[in-house]
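Margin note: ligand = NAP.
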Amino acid sequence: MKVGVITGASSGLGREFALRAEEAFPEIERFFLIARRKDRLEETAKLLKKPAEILPLDLTAEGSVEALTSALSSCGAEVCLLINNSGMGVLGEVKEADPGLQMHMCDLNVRALTGVTAAVLKFMKRGGRIINVSSIASFVPNARMTVYSSTKAYVTSFSRGLRQELKKEGIGVTAVCPGPMDTEFLDVGGVRGQSPMFKKLPYCKVPHVVKGALRAAKRGRAVYTDKLFFKFYRVLAKVLPHAWLIPFVKT
Ligand SMILES: NC(=O)c1ccc[n+]([C@@H]2O[C@H](COP(=O)([O-])OP(=O)(O)OC[C@H]3O[C@@H](n4cnc5c(N)ncnc54)[C@H](OP(=O)(O)O)[C@@H]3O)[C@@H](O)[C@H]2O)c1
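Resulting structure:
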């Protein structure tokens, strides 16, 4: 059975990915929606035309990747699309922040994403697509979101390396790097109203990011960034020394 796996499908970008993916990947027969909040996953599942199985998992918890593996095995899944979208970003300097929370952010954004990808790859064939949700924060280190931007630098770098590894197998990997979006992300990480940079930047619209990301993945692009403003920033980050940019991109 051809399936799509989406993490963080209970809100924001992940929920929109679930709604749009069935149109972009009509071959998918069943979706697996993952996040911690079961009720919110059920709401997303009800909005889909295709059947969706909900997996209420904390991806940072021991055994969660194994639970996903056994759900995929039990239906003889061929995964056509994996969207690694679960993530969080906490605002604050490293010395002030709760060390446990910083470690949790690394566990979710880096460790869980790596584990889910490695596990799901066993169920992918030629033509499969992986979308890893990174951020513009991956381009240059952002002081006051140092751990978050470091985790996202990993996500973009991991995606590029994996893309090269999987080229011969015909599996595409796309790192999606959005700018700020008005989602629960801003509340979960204490960003809303607390960051001068987030107040200044233009905001990306969730449906637009998702549409562009799905199109980029279908075309086999390595990286997708929404909005001209952030595309220009990506180029700047490639050509200018990061030491020059870091003082100006503090959150
Ligand atoms: N919003 C922005 O400004 C922005 C900008 C650039 C990149 N991003 C990235 O976009 C992605 C989606 O974020 P969003 O903006 O849509 O925010 P969001 O609405 O807070 O979504 C985060 C998702 O991750 C899930 N999640 C959190 N902890 C989890 C865990 N331990 N296990 C499994 N799932 C977990 C949440 O579901 P549960 O709480 O139900 O578990 C939720 O579905 C993230 O990777 C984020 O870093 C966001």
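The radius of gyration is 17 Å.
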